[in-house]
Structures are given as C-alpha cells and as structure tokens.
C-alpha cells in the first residue's frame, strides 16, 4: 500500500526508523520558517498524520511536542495543534535586479506613478461584462485561446485602432499582450534572434522600457538624443542599431511630438537600414490643447511595430495590451507569444471585447479626458505658483508634465527632500543616459485638484530649500 501524506508532501518511507521523529520535526520547522505553514494554520491530528505516513503515533506526538517547546506550535484540548510563530531569521534578500512597484508611506502623495484616476474604473460595467461572458460562454470558450488573443477582442481592437489612432490592422495582424511590457519583451527576443539586438532608445526616455529591452538583449540598448522635435534621426543614423523604440505622439518624459519631417526621416532610416521602428503609443488618447496626432504606424505598416495598452485608459491591473508587428515579423511574434505562456487569459479578453463593442470604453475615455484636463490645469497652476519661472513641458496631452529645474540642481536630491515632505515625484535624471538638464516628472492624474495644489505647494518648498 502506498505510504505518504499530501500534507507538505511528506514521505517517511526512506527515513530510518530511529530518525523519524527528528526528520518530521525538521520538516515542520522548515515549513513554518518558509511561510508554507503561516501563523494560525492548523496541523493534521496526530492519529491521522501517523496513519498517512505509516509511522507510530508517538513519533508524530513527539515531533509536535518538540516544536511546541520551541514556541513554534501551540496545542489546546479540543482545538488541535496550530502554528504559533515563525522562527526569527534574517529576511531573504530580493534577487538582484528584481523590480517592485514603488510603495510610499500612507501620508505621501504619489505624483510619481503614471496611472489614470483608478478610483473611476468602471466597476459596474466591468462586472456586467464579466457576467455576460460567463452566462454565454461555451465550454470551448473556457479552453485555451489562440496565442494571438481571442478573435472577439482582436476584431474590436482592429476597429478601435482604425477609428482612434489611424492604425490599419486586420484582426489577424494584432497580437494581444500583457501590456506594452509584454509586447517589448516579445519583440526584443524576436529581434535578437534575427541579429537585431542593438535597439536604440530615446534619451531621455522611459527607464522601465529601456530596462526591459536590456534584459532581453543583454544590455545593448543605444541612447539617441531627443530635442524639441523628438528623437534625432541623424544621431540615430550614426549608430549601428537597426531598431529604435520611440514615443512619437507624446514623448516620455518631455511630452514633445515627433515632427512631420522627423517622422519622414525616421521611416527613411528604417527603410535604408532594413530596420524597425517600435512605436509605443502609451497615452495618445489624452489630448487637451492640440489637434489629434495619428500613429506613426499609419504611414508605413511594413516598417513600424505599433504597441499600446489599456493601462492608461482603464487600469494597469488588467495587463491588457496589443502589438501590431510588420507582416514579416508576425509569425515569429506569435510563436514567441505562444512559447512565453500560451497567450493571455481569455475571459478578461472577452469582457474587454464587450466594453469596446457597446461603447463603454469610448464613453469612459471621454469622461476621463475631461477629468484629467481639470487636474492638469490645477497642476500647472500650482507649479507656476510654487515653482515660478520654471519651464513646464508636455502639458498639451498625456497624464504627466515635466518641470525643468535650474542648472546645477541635483534633481535626485530634490526628489528625496520632496518625499521627506510628503510628496513623491520622479527625477528627470532617472530617465537619462547622457548628462542633461535636471527636472521633475509629475504624474497628476491620480489626484483631485485640491490634493494636487497642496502636494505641489509642499514640493515647491522642498525644491527651494
């Protein structure tokens, strides 16, 4: 008869008879220390565990007693045996290079995280869509979705991108991803396999995107300067890169728009180099004081890989994004998506397809655009009052603005003083590779006007110190 317990997958069959008590005590001690048995969790009754393990009940009783004497377990008549405490030990260090979302103290106003007003997430509409999906889903719908994404979501995204961004992509050309991060991870692997691992990035440019590409290409990203017209194609041409990541509609973090001559020059570079332009269209939906700026992809779908997500429109928690690669890369991209994790979960995709189809997402975006414009106005007014004379960039669109500081100011020290004063922002230098002017990146969308005014007043006082 098979011996062993599902509890901690314990198996005493190979343990010498005289050492079973110590073996069991050590296994339980290790499980408590690792958190596998959290404080308060109950252990199996001694009679049941001894029967499963094929050992004498006294063996289990003695092992429990040892840990009780050590203070790790507690036993009470009628209540059984439970974990009382974890052994004191030094916390394990996080793996080198592991990214964690920033966590600020409760009294710190977070103007560092670029998200929309998450309190306005359309919960009722989302619940309605999920209920409808579950009430109408067939058994087949609960199986594996195609690695490209569900046909329903790709069809709705095809129409949405054509209407809102000028991206002409049939459903079969769209790959659903885990946000822009997932799209960049897949593209980086595909490009490296094709000998195109040197990928140029805007400088300054989003440090998170650069880190993702460095991870998959072995740290071979190439900085290319940005000025008032966007990324510099001449500087790009001077590198050996055959791919470049750009944010042409609202450059991060400067907020500039890639000019029409630069757009043409960038595509000419890609054509001559047999290269690729990766377009991160991360917050193009939000514009306040300017005309619409179409996606670069619409100018030449054979040279541009277009990616964006719903992280700025709905919420990052959805991890919902897409990638429209050029036709010659589509098969490789789909294979890489399949190899990564077989594709995104299908049920949330079906819910998103409903929200796109019935107009909920479009209505939500209109509401959020108006709300974020009010917050943008409050943030700009507060910066002008409390950091007078400082240039403010990127205010016409997006969810953040950039405030340039005087030459010689250490923006990282200014950020540290601001956080001490209860306000979190990002230093511009965090997003630079080459030296450049100092500045502060302020994400304003997550807070109402009154809270913004108070936070920026404290920020101004901290910077002036």
TrEMBL record:
Domain HTH gntR-type: 18-86
Gene3D superfamilies associated with the record: Type I PLP-dependent aspartate aminotransferase-like (Major domain) (3.40.640.10), Winged helix-like DNA-binding domain superfamily/Winged helix DNA-binding domain (1.10.10.10)
Top-level taxon of the source organism: Bacteria
PROSITE patterns named among the record's database cross-references: HTH_GNTR (PS50949)
Keyword terms, alphabetized: Aminotransferase, DNA-binding, Pyridoxal phosphate, Transcription, Transcription regulation, Transferase
InterPro entries per UniProt: Aminotransferase_I/II_large (IPR004839), HTH_trans_reg/aminotransferase (IPR051446), PyrdxlP-dep_Trfase (IPR015424), PyrdxlP-dep_Trfase_major (IPR015421), Tscrpt_reg_HTH_GntR (IPR000524), WH-like_DNA-bd_sf (IPR036388), WH_DNA-bd_sf (IPR036390)
One of the record's GO molecular function terms: transaminase activity
Family designation: In the C-terminal section; belongs to the class-I pyridoxal-phosphate-dependent aminotransferase family.
Descriptive protein name: GntR family transcriptional regulator / MocR family aminotransferase
Species of the source: Nocardiopsis flavescens
């Amino acid at each position: 008869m098979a011996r062993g317990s599902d509890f901690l997958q314990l198996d005493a069959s190979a343990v010498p008879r005289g050492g079973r008590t110590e073996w069991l005590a050590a296994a339980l001690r290790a499980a408590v220390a690792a958190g596998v048995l959290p404080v308060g969790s109950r252990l199996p009754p001694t009679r049941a565990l001894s029967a499963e393990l094929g050992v004498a009940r006294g063996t289990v009783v003695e092992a429990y007693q040892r840990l009780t004497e050590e203070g790790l377990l507690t036993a009470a008549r009628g209540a059984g045996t439970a974990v009382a405490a974890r052994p004191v030990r030094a916390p394990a260090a996080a793996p080198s290079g592991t990214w964690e979302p920033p966590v600020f103290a409760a009294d710190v106003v977070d103007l560092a995280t670029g998200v929309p007003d998450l309190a306005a997430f359309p919960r009722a509409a989302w619940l309605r869509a999920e209920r409808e999906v579950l009430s109408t889903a067939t058994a087949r719908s609960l199986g594996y979705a195609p690695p490209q994404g569900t046909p329903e979501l790709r069809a709705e995204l095809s129409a949405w991108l054509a209407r809102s961004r000028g991206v002409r992509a049939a459903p079969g050309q769209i790959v659903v991803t885990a946000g822009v991060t997932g799209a960049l991870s897949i593209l980086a692997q595909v490009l490296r396999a094709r000998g195109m691992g040197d990928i140029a990035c805007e400088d300054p440019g989003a440090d998170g995107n650069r880190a993702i590409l460095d991870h998959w290409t072995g740290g071979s990203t190439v900085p290319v300067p940005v000025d008032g017209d966007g990324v510099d194609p001449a500087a790009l041409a001077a590198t050996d890169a055959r791919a470049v990541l750009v944010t042409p509609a609202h450059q991060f973090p400067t907020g500039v728009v890639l000019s029409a001559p630069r757009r043409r020059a960038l595509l000419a570079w890609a054509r001559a180099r047999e290269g690729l332009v990766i377009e991160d269209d991360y917050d193009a939906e939000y514009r306040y004081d300017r005309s619409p700026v179409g996606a670069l992809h619409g100018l030449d779908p054979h040279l541009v890989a277009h990616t964006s997500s719903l992280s700025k429109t709905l919420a990052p928690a959805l991890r919902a994004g897409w990638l429209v690669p050029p036709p010659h890369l589509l098969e490789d991209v789909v294979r890489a998506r399949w190899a990564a994790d077989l594709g995104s979960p299908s049920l949330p995709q079906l819910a998103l397809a409903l929200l796109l189809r019935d107009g909920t997402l479009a209505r939500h975006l209109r509401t959020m655009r108006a709300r974020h414009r009010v917050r943008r106005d409050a943030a700009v007014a507060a910066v002008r009052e409390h950091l007078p004379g400082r240039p403010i960039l990127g205010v016409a669109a997006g969810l953040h603005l950039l405030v340039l500081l005087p030459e010689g100011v250490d923006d990282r020290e200014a950020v540290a003083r601001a956080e001490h004063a209860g306000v979190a922002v990002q230093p511009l230098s965090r997003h630079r590779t080459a030296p450049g002017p100092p500045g502060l990146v302020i994400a304003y969308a997550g807070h109402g006007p009154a809270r913004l005014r108070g936070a920026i007043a404290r920020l101004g006082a901290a910077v002036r110190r």
